[in-house]
Structure formats: structure tokens, C-alpha cells
Amino acid sequence: MQTERAPRARPVPPGGRDERVETGATLSRDSTWRLSPSLPDPPDEVLVVRFQSGDRAAFAMLVRRHQSGLYNFALRNLRERTAAEDIVQEAFVRVAQSAADFKADARFSTWVYTIVRNLCIDQIRKNALRRHPSLDESRKSDEGEGPTLGEQTADPRGRADVERTVEGGRLKERIQAAIDALPDDQREVYLMREMSNLRFKEIADITGVPENTVKSRMRYALERLQEALVEFEEHARALR
Amino acid sequence: MIDCSTFQNCEIDALYSEGAERELDDEALAALTEHAKTCPACAARLERLRDNRRLVLSVAVEPVPSDFESRIMAAVDEALAKRGNVVALVPATADAKKASGGATILRFMARPSFAVAATFVLVLGGAALMMTRNSAPMRALASASDESAPAAVAASAATLTPVPMPAEVAQAAATAAAAAPPPAAVAMAPAFAGPAAAPVIGAKAGKPAASTAENPALVTAKNLASAGRCTEALPKLEALSASTPEADLYAARCIAKTRGCAAAEPRFDKAAQTNAGTEIGSRAQLEGARCYQSTGDVVAARKRYEAAQGDETLSAEASAGLDALESSAPAAKPGTPSAGAHASPKAMPAPRAVEPASPAKR
After folding, report:
1. Which residues pair with A138 in a beta bridge?
2. Which residues of B touch A96 (CB under 8 A)?
3. pTM of the model
4. Which of A98, A103, A197 lies nearest to residue B21, judging by beta carbons?
5. Pick the residue with more confidence: A45 or A129?
6. Are residues A71 and B68 in contact, defined by beta-carbon separation less than 8 angstroms?
């Protein structure tokens, strides 16, 4: 039977929770995944086809594979844990409801990230209608901590507080604040590539802009982050 | 060998060319790596980007809640359980768009405003239907209002039991039914049971006779007769009989009902003679024959049955009556009154159901 090279294995969430084997398996023309102990986890698209046939475990594998990337993408966009969880859950529900319409030649990750992105945009618009950000309000509303918008505006780098930040374990908040400070178009590209491990081509499909534009946004985002986190260069080198 | 410009253009791709979802293939990555070995500046740029990447990824990734997967799967299971009420959300294909269109219709029909509008239409439609179906009793009530025809109202209302009647109509119908004479009193002619059952002379099937519609006095007299009030109706019918053939026939019927067939026979003969050559005349012959038969005058009955046979509309009825007469004739001598000669009208054989009359021949 003629076969084609299988889609690349799904992205490994940056958190390292996914313990999949690297790919190299084949996908037959009739989209049947030949399960074998020697084969890695099947690609997303094969799992969707199996779910279309009633395989609930296949869908659970999709959830396990993408939940971290989707959650972090939504969390960094919305900055609210509960809202991010709700949106990811809603996205998977919609995927399950519409799985019958999924075509095997489409990318599952493009599909599900498009849903989450649209839900995030809707949520952000709703939040914008509900309230306006205050200069005294923490950007991390669910934790009640982190630099306020006023602090970021007055001293976006916060060099004077570097040592205390690192020692006090606030590096995480500073990095998150730097990501939050990115323009929206740059931040979403950065999150999809960095957190969700989507390729530039796929990000271009999701966002609807040319791939070169995606790469440009990515470059600007990386340069901004590098500038914002220049105080932590030593710390970064120590991580090599 | 690539130059620095090309390297810088590709360094973002090189940054994400490790592990899964690589941007560059092995050959391109090898070329960049070869350039970095010979260009410390480019190598340093790429290494700073990698350092920064590691720094961010070391802390920026939030772990998902421990029960997140189970919650998602529970929500999915619940949604799939309600799948019949779920709308497809990805109209990526023509089929999906079609399904989405159907779902849009379903969503529209599920709106409360649609239910209210549908209820309104149903109520209006039901009211219109009820008004249409109640037209007969309403007409009967209108007739009863001037001279009253309770039996007619009762009969008409009785045919409409499947449709709820307005309270006033139902009450009028019940009153009329109670006031109507017992069935025995009208057994002679079911035509008197009500307009719906009366033989309409000179009218096509399902269409009222023109003369009935055009002569209010005749309508009133006939309604009185149909209501069993022949004493009141007879003078009116007699007054009309000179100009209205149907009144002639109805007058004979009223006499038969109130005074018996012996008294009605001459009146039937008169009506037959006056309206000879018409359906009304033939019907007078036929009903007169039945009267003569009931009084035992077989010869007179036979003569009139034979005369009625000449009318193609009534020939079947006349032939049947004649057959019945002949089958019983040997037992009766011509001119000899039978045992029932003077029996009350209720003992008379009930006239057969009258077929819808053909157009008047006049």
C-alpha cells in the first residue's frame, strides 16, 4: 500500500509533560494508524479520525497533548487562570462537537488554536467593555501581585530591583510582565511559537497574515524580551 | 557557504530548528551551523537568543491544573450526550455549512418569540376554522331569531360536536332540542327534521334552490314546517302555493303531518297536477303514492308511482316504491282500506332518504 510520510509529531509542551517518542512512523492513505509497540504516538489527525469512529481515548490523548500549550497561550493572553481554563475546555468541547467535519488533510493544531484564539479575542473584548484597567491595578489580577501598569510605565526595566527580584523569586513575574508588555500581534505569535511549538507557517494560517510577517513579529518580540530581560543575562547563561 | 546577511535572515528559523516542529531541514541547519563556526558575531547573536529562550521557558510555563484533563473530558462527554441539540461550529465544508444552516433554523425556531408568533397564528387559524364550520348553526340561529327553528338549530349543532361551540350556541341548541317535538311526530317526513335533511327541490347537489334563497316568506314558512309548527306554517304555505310550486308540496306535507295521509292525498294530487312536468310535481306524485299505499289504495298508489317513474330524477325511488307495492298487493284488494288505513302518521312508512334533486325542469 502506498504510504505518505506522517505529519510530524505534535508539539511537546514546554513544560515537558508530554513523554512522546519522536516520529518516523507512516500513515497509510486510508488514514488508518497501524498501532505497534515500535511506533510513536499517532499524529493528531489520526487521533481525530479515530475519535470520529468513537474512540474516546483518542480524544483524551489529544487533550493530554495540547492542554498545556493551549492553556498557557490562553493564560498569557487573558491573564486570568479561570478564564483560560474555561476557554480551553470550551475549545475542546467545540472540537468534539465538530469532529465529524474535520478533514484529514487539515492540521488539528491549526484548528484548535484558531478556536482558542477567537475565544480569547471575544473574552478580551468582553473584558474591555466591562472595565478599564487602572494604573493601580496589578496586571495579574488573579494573584493580586506583580507590577502595576503604573510601575511598568514608569520603569519598564526595573533595573534597580534586579537582585531583589531574582533573590525573591520574582523572576517569573518579571518575565511574565515582559511578555504581557509585548504588543498583541507580537505576543500571540511569540506564544504560539514558543509556548505552543507551532511552526511559523501554521501561525500564519491561524492569524491570517503572511509567514514573513509572522517571522518579523517574532523577531521584534524576541528583541523586546531580550531588552526587557537584559538584567538576567548572567542568570540565562547559567541555564546553559 | 552562506554570508552574515543570510544567517541573520534565518537565525529565527535556526532558533526553532531543534526537536519537533523544526523550521529548517537538516541541510539548511547544517549550513547555518557551518557559518556560525566561522563567524563569532553571528554565533554570539544566536547564542543570546537561545539563552533568552531558555530563561523565559524556565519560568514562563504554567502547569495545568491536575484535574484539567478530566474536567475537559467530562465537559466533552456531557456535550456529546446532548449532541442532538448541539450546533456544528466549524462550517469548513459545504456539508458543514448546510448543517450550520439547518442549525440556524433550529435556533430560530427555539426562540421564545417564534413560539409566541406560532401560537398567535394557531389561535387565529383555529378561530377562523371554527367560524367557518359554525356557519350552519349561526345561520340556523339567525333564522330562529325571527320565527325560531329550534329543531333545526339542534340538528345543525348536533352535526358539529367535534368543534367546540360557543356557549350561547350550545345553550340555544340544547334549548331547541328540548323544545322540539318527539321523533315520532316528524317520522312522516325526515325532510321536516331540519333544512339539512330536507329534500331541496329544484336544486343541484350541494347547492340551495334558487327559489328558497330568493323568497324570504317561503323560507320562513319552511322553517316553521321544519320546526314542527305546521299549524302556523300551513296558512303561509297555502298563501304562497299559487305562485310558489314548492309551497304547494310543503302544504301537502304539512297536511299529512297534522291531519294524516287521508286528508293529504287530495293535496298531493293538487300539487302534482299544478306542477305537472316538474320535479316538484313528480315528487308530489311520489309522496302522494306513498300516502295512498299507506291508506291501502293500491290502485291509486300504483298509478302515481308509475307517473313518478317518468321523472328520471325520481324513477329509482318510484320503481322501488312500486315494487314494494306489488309485493304486498295480492293481500289487499283494490279499494279496500288496509288495517292501517287510519293509522296515525307515525305508522306510515318513512319516506326514503331523498337524493339531491336535479335542477328544476321548469
Report:
1. A148
2. 76, 79-80
3. 0.45
4. A197
5. A45
6. yes
